[in-house]
Automatic annotation (TrEMBL):
Any Pfam family hit: tRNA_edit
InterPro entries: PROXY, YbaK/aa-tRNA-synt-asso_dom_sf, YbaK/aa-tRNA-synth-assoc-dom
Listed SUPFAM superfamilies: YbaK/ProRS associated domain
Highest rank taxon of the organism: Bacteria
Record's protein name: YbaK/prolyl-tRNA synthetase associated domain-containing protein
GO molecular function: aminoacyl-tRNA deacylase activity; aminoacyl-tRNA ligase activity
Entries under PANTHER family matching the protein: CYTOPLASMIC PROTEIN (PTHR30411), MULTIFUNCTIONAL SER_THR-TRNA DEACYLASE PROXP-Y (PTHR30411:SF9)
YbaK/aminoacyl-tRNA synthetase-associated domain span: 29-151
Organism: Affinibrenneria salicis
Length: 164
C-alpha cells in the first residue's frame, strides 16, 4: 500500500510540474547494472538514493543522499558538506519510516519533512535522463535530468568517493 502511495505522489508531482518522464515496469533486480539493463538505460543514469544519519558539531540530521548508480558515496565527505563530523547509513526501519519504501526502491525525492534531500553535482553532468525505482523494485521512472533538478530542488554537495 505505501509503495503505491509513493508512486502516486511521484506521478502527481511530476505531472503537475510538467516534467518529461516515462514509467517502466520491469522484473525486480538487485544491482544497479541489472536494473539499468531491464530499464534500457545506462548504470550511470540511475539515481541511487541513500538514507543516512549525519552527526557531530551539533548536527543531527537524516539525509537522503542521491548519487549516480555507478558511483559510491563517501559518507565522511557527506557529513563534512553538511557541517557534521560523521555519517552512517540508516537502519532498515528508519528507511521505511522516512521513505515508506524498502531498500533499493527509494526514489530520489523526499516526502518527509525530517529528510533533507541532497545530490552530488556529478548526477547532473552526464545524462539527459535519470532513472530510479519509483517506490517499488518492479517499477521505475525515467525522468529528464533538468526537470528532476527543477522539481526536487536538492541541495548540492560533492560527496562521491574519490579514487585518487
Amino acid at each position: 500500500m505505501a509503495q503505491q502511495n509513493v508512486f502516486e505522489k511521484l506521478h502527481q508531482l511530476l505531472t503537475s510540474g510538467q516534467a518529461r518522464f516515462r514509467v517502466v515496469d520491469h522484473d525486480s533486480a538487485g544491482r544497479s547494472a541489472e536494473v539499468a539493463r531491464l530499464r534500457g538505460t545506462q548504470p550511470g543514469q540511475g539515481a541511487k538514493a541513500l538514507v543516512c544519519h549525519v552527526k557531530g558539531n551539533g548536527v543531527r540530521r537524516h539525509v537522503l543522499a542521491v548519487l549516480p548508480g555507478d558511483c559510491q558515496a563517501d559518507l565522511s565527505r557527506l557529513a563534512q558538506g553538511l557541517g557534521g563530523t560523521r555519517a552512517s547509513l540508516a537502519s532498515p526501519r528508519e528507511v521505511t519510516d522516512l521513505t515508506q519504501c524498502v531498500f533499493g526502491a527509494i526514489p530520489p525525492f523526499s516526502f518527509h519533512p525530517d529528510l533533507l534531500l541532497v545530490a552530488d553535482p556529478f548526477l547532473f553532468s552526464r545524462f539527459d535522463e535519470l532513472a530510479f525505482n519509483a517506490g517499488s523494485l518492479e517499477r521505475s521512472i525515467v525522468l529528464n535530468t533538468e526537470d528532476y533538478r527543477r522539481i526536487a530542488r536538492p541541495q548540492s554537495i560533492d560527496f562521491l568517493r574519490r579514487n585518487d
